[in-house]
Design goal:
Elements: E1 5-6, E2 11-14, H1 25-33, E3 38-42, H2 58-63, E4 68-71, H3 85-93, E5 97-100, H4 110-119, E6 123-125, E7 144-150, H5 157-170, E8 175-178, H6 182-188, E9 190-191, H7 202-209, E10 218-221, H8 233-243, E11 247-253, H9 270-281, E12 289-296, H10 302-316, E13 319-321, H11 328-338
Parallel strand pairs: 2-3, 2-4, 4-5, 5-6, 7-10, 7-11, 8-10, 11-12, 12-13
Antiparallel strand pairs: 1-9
Helix pairs in contact: 1-6, 3-4, 7-8
Length: about 350
């Protein structure tokens, strides 16, 4: 586990100059899934957006126990905006490390680098993979593993993995959420940014992320991309092989028919998606199975979501649930994972 990025907790969330929550994806994920780690929020003067957390300046947050300031805002193109730099310097001077999932690297800014060195603070770019990642071996490992996979990108693989790990722990099981993306890493406090790993090492990174464990322990691994996505299938396949999952949960967005941003590519049927994913997964775990489908029903009413979930379950003969709608259907999906 020494290969994983380690993020100091708890956090002061920096909202930048955002005027609404559209650009606060990381902040929303942290607030929703790791509220105990989010001590407060801080933003540029005049910014209107809020996550509903207490407002604190860096020195106040440090005195309250915060160990790092997290860039909870995302700008177009993943840039670290020049107007944010004075606020980041203030945080370093207050004794906080800075954590960023942006494409721009904190360590590339001369002022931030100089102040961090002078104050003995860390600039943590979570989209930078750790050094020394191994080539995959395909060796079978002890412990149990669940991987979320998808018919497309951006449909709930992270939230599904988080919800399942939480549900496993609520049943008294030893379970860890294993993060593979920048927001997940900041939520979990550790992980490997799979989309930033050189292709030859993706499967090896997945092996390092979920090492040998007690036979009863579950690693619930955050999926990335989709085997059906012409842009990102490569990272999905490497993660699938290196994870060696015992259980898959297929994530799908209700009503989505084509790959987002690539309308010439239709989404596969649920049956085809399960079939191909299992076929590929059997390379490193011949006993893998699919427990069911995580259906993103955002935009549907409670009644509409229930109808969609039942219809899909009857159509394909598998457990189906929206993890963001707790209840009997989600309980059935959890039990199917553990069966």
């Amino acid at each position: 586990m020494s290969d994983m990025i380690d993020v100091p907790q708890p956090y002061l969330l920096f909202l930048g100059d955002a005027d609404d929550t559209t650009y606060l994806k990381t902040g929303l994920g942290l607030r929703d899934w790791a509220p105990a780690l989010c001590l407060a929020e801080h933003k540029c003067d005049g910014a209107a957006a809020s996550l509903g957390l207490p407002a604190m300046h860096p020195r106040e947050a440090r005195a309250a126990g915060a160990r790092s300031l997290v860039l909870a805002a995302a700008s177009i193109g993943g840039a670290i905006r020049p107007g944010w730099i004075p606020y980041l310097v203030e945080a370093l001077e207050a004794g906080l490390d800075i954590v960023s999932g942006a494409h721009d690297r904190l360590s590339d800014d001369p002022l931030l680098k100089r102040v961090a060195q002078a104050k003995g603070r860390r600039l943590i770019d979570v989209r930078t993979p750790p050094p020394g990642l191994p080539i995959a071996t395909g060796r079978r490992r002890n412990g149990k593993r669940l991987l979320t996979v998808g018919t497309d990108c951006a449909l709930g693989k992270k939230y599904t993995a988080l919800a399942l790990a939480e549900a496993f722990r609520a049943r008294g099981l030893a379970a860890d959420f294993r993060a593979t993306g920048q927001t997940g890493i900041i939520i979990a406090g550790s992980g490997i940014p799979i989309d930033a790993v050189v292709s030859d090492f993706v499967a090896g990174a997945a092996e390092a992320l979920s090492p040998d464990a007690d036979p009863a322990h579950w690693d619930v691994i955050e999926g990335q991309g989709s085997l059906f996505h012409p842009s990102y299938a490569g990272v999905s396949l490497g993660l699938l092989h290196g994870s060696q999952p015992d259980v898959l949960v297929l994530c799908h967005a209700h009503g989505r028919q084509r790959i987002v941003g690539l309308p010439d590519y239709p989404l596969p049927s649920i049956g085809r998606a399960i079939e191909l994913t299992l076929e590929q997964a059997r390379l490193t775990n011949p006993q893998v199975r699919c427990a069911g489908v995580s259906l993103n029903t955002a935009g549907l009413s409670t009644e509409e979501a229930a109808v969609a979930i039942i219809a899909l379950s009857h159509e394909w003969g598998v457990a189906v649930a929206d993890p963001m709608r707790p209840g009997a259907a989600f309980d059935q999906l959890v039990e199917a994972c553990l069966a």
